[in-house]
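User: Structure please.
Assistant: Input sequence and predicted structure:
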Amino acid sequence: QVQLVESGGGLVQPGGSLRLSCAASGTIFKIGYMGWYRQVPGKQREFVARITNGGSTNYADSVKGRFSISRDNAKNTVYLQMDSLKPEDTAVYYCNVPLAGMDYWGRGTQVTVSS
């Protein structure tokens, strides 16, 4: 079993920044990808960013140039630095770790971008 705990969400004005964190714990042998997804009510969960254990990254087009994903392998923690936030970034953000053929998800953290 793997437990994922997100933190760092909140309310921010347009143009502001937030940094999300996700710590993985439990039966972990070797985590490959760690990623972030987001979801708004009534819509499907969508990919935001992911990072390999070697540091290679992928981003959704909607966040390229504004968001930055990083990780601390020693702490099994992944981060999402979100800059130049827009109202359309408002969503619940979920941490994702695929491991041993299963997808693990955190409970999510709310990010609200509003003036």
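The chain has no helices and eleven strands.
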